Amino acid sequence: MSPPDLTPFQNEGAGPYQVAGRPRGRHRRSEPGSAGAAESLPLPPGAARWLVLAAVLVCSACGLVYELALVALGGRLGPDPVAETSVVLSVMVFSMGLGALAAKPFGHRPAEAFAVVESALAVVGGTSVTVVYTGAHVFGLYRLTMLTVCVATGVLVGAEIPLLMTLVQRIRQQDAGDAVADLFAADYVGALGGGLLFPFLLLPTLGQVGTVALVGAVNALVGTFVVLWLFRADLDRRARTRMCVLVVSALALIACAAGFGPDPPATTRESDGPKCSYTCSTGA
Predict the structure, then answer these.
(1) What is the pLDDT of residue 42?
(2) Distances from the Cα of 256 to the Cαs of 124, 187, 250, 251, in angstroms?
(3) d(Cα 222, Cα 239) in Å, to the nearest integer?
(4) Which of 37, 125, 127, 278 has the most CB atoms around it within 10 Å of its CB?
(5) N- to C-terminal Cα distance for the chain?
(6) H or E segment and range at residue 108
(7) Distance CA 217, CA 211 (A)
(8) CA-wise closest residue to 111 among 73, 167, 190
(9) Per residue in 176-212, pLDDT tens?
(10) What span, in angstroms and rounded, lies between the C-alpha atoms of 159 and 180?
(11) Distance (Å, rounded) from C-alpha 284 to C-alpha 268?
(12) Would the pLDDT of 95 be above 70?
């Protein structure tokens, strides 16, 4: 008697929760088209993946520097440093969640979307100190300006991870848990680097305005370089032109804010003089 025909879910070696024909290992077989996508990269998949993780590290460090700069500025301009720190951190974390959701519709074009996000984040973060200080001391709108900058920065920072997750999977399909672990490991290491560089090197050397300006320039260049070089096969000529225009415009705006904008005082502690709250319309 001949053995009965096996259905697609009764293939030999397939468990009750395993699709027939797929290996039992942690990494699933690549989806159709992923091999061709990997072949279009200028680097082997392993090296390309490490390059993207390095970009995650740098961008994470930049994002934390923006956050720390706003916290430090809020502690000096606001009436209560503890309250200002809490407001800045909570609003930025909340906005990061909004940014992660806002990035979902752009998953079909992750490379170009990531470059746009990084250029926008570079402008917002690289000019954040100048914008908030100007809003507080020229227009008397400290609270509104601070919240607006915090929300914009948080939304753009939050949009990074979903797009980077898509780019990592674009290079080489792997288990989602492994990809998330790699991305967050690079993200947290970068946050550590940014958190240590800000108070011990950047702030004493460059001041608040110079620090965020330099970090913004690095942010724009790294994000654009990764996309233009590593994922250039995904972009047509118009897309590459748009990205070049965006990064040059971002650098120009950051340079103008750093060169012509007001520079906050180094210290405004109570022992050094009166502290301006968000109700002040002119400098303290």
Answers:
(1) 86
(2) 13, 30, 10, 9
(3) 17
(4) 125
(5) 96
(6) none
(7) 10
(8) 167
(9) 889 899 999 999 999 999 999 999 999 999 999 999 9
(10) 15
(11) 9
(12) yes
